[in-house]
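Appendix B, example 12.
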Amino acid sequence: MLQAQNEEDDKFRTDVLSMLKKQGHASKQSLAFIIESTYTQKKNVKELTPLELKRITSAYSVYHDELEGNSYITELYTEMMNEWEHI
């Protein structure tokens, strides 16, 4: 199961990088949406599953490190990483 999750995570990251090359600014918005929508959907329970955690970590890595994303998304990500339970 862990191997399948790792493979899915690797595929997600590869797909994201490919999309970035094709869509530029729209890609940045898509990555922000992944993080923001996860935050919105889970803010009442403040818990992330391993798959959700991997997905937002991968999205944030590209959004922040490669696209120099904004501080709003960084605040959401930081809260989910530091204050939420990772189940």
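The longest strand covers residues 47-48. The radius of gyration is 13 Å.
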